Amino acid sequence: MDVEETKASHLSVVLDLSPAHWELSARDQPHNTHPLSLASFLSQLLAFLNAHIACRDENTLAVFGAFPKKSVMLYSSTEPPTNWVSSDTTGNAYPPFNAVDSTVVQRISAELERLESPEGEEVPPSALVGALTKALCYVNRISLPPNPNSKAQANGFHPGVLPDPRILILSVSPDLSTSYIPIMNSIFSAQKLKATIDVCQVYGHNSVFLQQAAHLTGGSYILLERRDALLQYLMMSFLPPPSIRKTLSVPTQDQVDFRAACFCHKKIVDIGFVCSVCLSIYCTPLPVCTTCRTKFPMKTLTRLKAAQPLLLGVAGGVMTNGGNKGTTTNGGR
Questions:
Q1: How far is CA 58 from the centre of its chain?
Q2: What gap in Å lies between CA 267 and CA 204, rounded to an integer?
Q3: pLDDT per residue as tens digits for the range 114-137
Q4: Strand ranges (DSSP E) for 204-269?
Q5: Which is nearest to 12 in space by CA: 115, 172, 153, 136?
Q6: Measured over all CA atoms, what is the biggest interatomic distance in the chain, rounded to whole angstroms?
Q7: Quick check: helix, strand or coil at residue 67?
Q8: In order of start, what are the domains of the chain with their CATH numbers?
Q9: Which end of the chain is more exposed for a tag (fewer CB within 10 A), N or C?
Q10: What pLDDT, in 10s, does the model give residues 179-235?
Q11: What are phi and psi of 330, to 5 degrees?
Q12: Where are the alpha helices (DSSP H) in the chain?
């Protein structure tokens, strides 16, 4: 068998734990015919995490939680927790499985109990980007050449063997336009680390930014139609590591929404104007780029503003700095 198909695999799981959206997901409503509570979600997720550990002894796992205004690491197999309390009273559970189950559930419960939500105030969004960034930093750390004195090697890594990294995002929240730039930076970092980003949108509508993250890193994006079959989706679509997916027929996206968020109002736009110097995106032509402070000729701004009504049927627009119409130039160079 090919070495690429038998090497160890690392999985980082990012959990969107927004209480407000999980409450909506658990409600039985006309538009939500298959409600899924947080407790049911965790029970199916833990079975999936145990399956990843059982696939290969050298496989590693890290779990990150995205709470409102906060992101934390819930579990790491390279640095197993020492203060977890076993949830198995019979003593018959496999210790690695028991450690994952107990640690993840206990830490999620502890974090949710610490949340303060005063009445009348809007619940802040979950720190999904922060959790994704921490997952990327973790992948970067364990992907470095092995150190004989490191804890990672003591827990399964061997000299010359690097993990096959991937990140699975389980989201229930809609897109935040303010997170466009951080998510794009995370995508570029994942490409550099050769880390695959998979996305499972458990509740809500399609996420534009997470669709792009999965597409640009070679991962899979799935919007659940039957939330009560979450475990089946996880096992069939996200359990195989990237080294094995080349021989399997994994789900792919028929269409990807590549819309961006403007830098001025932080909203998703169909038609944008791009600064020719720093590539910042704006929904309307501006005399001065707010990012790099480049000044644009008034003749160019007048032409672009006059052409705005004609651009409604066009997929994108370009702001030029003294160059020809329809091109991105700097001072006509």
A1: 24
A2: 19
A3: 876 555 566 788 899 999 999 999
A4: 221-223, 260-261, 268-269
A5: 136
A6: 79
A7: strand
A8: 3-245 (3.40.50.410), 260-313 (no CATH)
A9: N
A10: 888 899 999 999 999 999 999 999 988 888 899 999 999 889 999 888 888 999 999
A11: -125, 105
A12: 3-6, 19-26, 38-55, 95-114, 128-142, 151-154, 180-193, 208-216, 230-233, 242-245, 298-307
Tens digits of per-residue pLDDT, 286-297? 888 887 888 888
State the residue for tokens 């999980």.
22
pLDDT digits (tens, 9 = 90+) for 239-260: 988 778 878 777 777 677 777 7
Pair of tokens at residue 136: 């990327």
Structure tokens at 161: 């063997």
DSSP at 76: E
Residue 24, classified by CB atoms within 10 Å of its CB into exposed (0-12), middle (13-18) or buried (19+), is middle
pTM above 0.85, yes or no: no
Query: Residues 238, 269: contact at Cβ < 8 Å?
Result: no
